[in-house]
Amino acid sequence: MALDHPAKPLAETERTRLLAIAAELGPKMVELAQGLWENPELGYLEEKSSALLAAACEEAGFEVKRGVGGLPTAFLATRKRGEGPVIGFLAEMDALPGFSQDASPRRSPIPDQNKGHACGHHLFGAASLGAGLALATWQDEAGLDGEIRIYGCPAEEGGAGKVFMARAGLFEGLDIALHWHPDDCNTVWQSRSLASINAKVRFHGRTAHAAMSPEKGRSSLHALEAFHHMASLMREVVPQDTHIHYVTLSGGEAPNVIPDFAESHIGVRHPDPGAAAEVFERIEKAAEGAALGTGTRVEVERLGAVHSLLPNSVVGAVMLANMEVLPRITWSNEEYTWAAELQESFEAPPELSQIGRLNPYNYNALGPFSTDVGDVSWLVPTGMLGTATWVPGTRPHTWQAVAAGGMSIGWKGMQAAAEGLAVSGASFLADPALVARAWDEHRAQRGEGYRYKALVGDAEPPFDYQVGKG
Predict the structure, then answer these.
(1) What does the pLDDT look like over 86-99, one tens digit per residue?
(2) Which of 60, 150, 217, 454 is most buried by its number of CB atoms within 10 A?
């Protein structure tokens, strides 16, 4: 699309120096990323990962606060010089259950390990941290005032860590938020996403022998089945673009015993956070109705709820202008051979050469995904880029993503991301007028009188949502 706010990249002299600083930090980023990759930790359980990243920030002279927002593995690292723009980098760190895999182009699980970085958050965290450290060094050399923040963000994968950080006010005073994500190509995007609310719905009944005394029982499974049926019927009478998903987590142990406990995990998605909240309220009413009709009791626990992404064309234009002039990723012959072997596990894989080019700018398209970055984007102008840390054709949440993330292909993409984030952050740090333009657009998009309200309400963080999965 034509950019509403065309931007110029950071001046070549400053850009060259900043890239040199980022290159010096390259080995440190690899060390951190590999530390997380070799010891993958699930959401809200990232004790070693958080400690590694936080310690690296302290070593670089950042002031670090651990356990912020009431989240044991979240941290905020800050480095301030005078009064000026406040630039923040989001650093994720959580792995996924399953996906055990070594750095091999063939499926090769690691013995006695049942989790892995199938979404590349080990690279995500290390590159975001590297960008913040590089920008702080460059800031001192350039004599610019401003503040650099690095946010250690836990539990993106379903735990909505940034939502609880946002609810706690940790993004107050931030001028620009920058983040990235591992990918199989290079891109700058300012797309929209789906707001999402998910919960566990638990029905409590009364057990009884299903043949000898069925009248004594109250079936929690009947309640769950009625609830799921009502949720399915609801799909006809909800706003367009609504998605309702559910699975049964528990429904009894034996057919001759009327179960006294049943559990559903249900989620609602919609591009509009308000519409998602309205549909979820109807879902809760359906659960209450199912309990009433079956003589059972119901409780609803919200696990995670995230806003949709709010794109910002000013931030996107700045990131695009800088990414267009940065060096392209290049692979060695050995890396091409490794990638070609991995691609044998794909059907009709794309060309490997796409790792050396920048894809077309993506603005305001609706993506069929949800992320807790959405909540940050409603609080502060936010921008995102992606780099080729994976072999072309790789999708997130696959063993192929884990494999490439543990070797040089992933590291080179991580380096490119750190460079793009650092140079984009420098553009805003050096030009407060750009920050003001981004905020003008941000306020106009949110509308007059906007007040942020977390879709999780006053729910406590679901610290145990991944316990037992890895």
Answers:
(1) 999 999 999 999 99
(2) 150
Please state which architecture CATH assigns to domain 12-193+308-446: 3-Layer(aba) Sandwich (3.40)
- Residue 21 has what pLDDT? 98
Neighbours of 229 (CB within 10 A): 12
Judged by phi (left if over 0) then psi (alpha if -120 to 50, else beta), residue 244 lies in: beta
Q: Are 462 and 305 in contact (CB under 8 A)?
A: no
Helices and strands (DSSP H and E) totals, the chain:
13, 16
CA 210 to chain CA centroid, Å, is 46
Q: Is the dihedral of CA 155, 156, 158, 159 positive or negative?
A: positive
Q: What is the DSSP letter of 6?
A: -
| pLDDT tens-digit series, residues 363-413 | 999 988 899 999 999 999 999 999 999 999 999 999 999 999 999 999 999
Strands (DSSP E) contained in 115-222 are: 115-116, 146-153, 176-183, 187-192, 195-204, 208-209
CATH of the structural domain 195-304, one choice from 3.30.70.360, 3.60.15.10, 3.30.70.3340, 3.40.50.2000: 3.30.70.360
Q: Within a 10 A sphere around the Cβ of 142, how many other Cβ atoms?
A: 14
Q: Is the pLDDT of residue 85 over 60?
A: yes
| CA–CA dist 236, 242 (Å, integer) | 10
Among candidate residues 207, 214, 270, the one with its CA nearest the CA of residue 239: 270
Distance separating alpha carbons of residues 339 and 105, to the nearest angstrom: 7
Structure token pair of residue 15: 């850009």
Q: Confirm if 370 and 195 have CB atoms less than 8 A apart.
A: yes
For the stretch 156-172, pLDDT in tens is 998 999 999 999 999 99
Alpha carbon of 104 to those of 140, 209, 340: distances in Å?
41, 53, 12
Beta bridge partners of 298: 203
* CA–CA dist 255, 52 (Å, integer): 49
| Amino acid symbol at 243 | H
pLDDT mean over 223-234: 98
Question: Would you state the pLDDT for residue 1?
Answer: 41
For the chain, the domains span 12-193+308-446, 195-304
* CA distance readout (Å), 204 to 220, 285, 400: 6, 16, 42
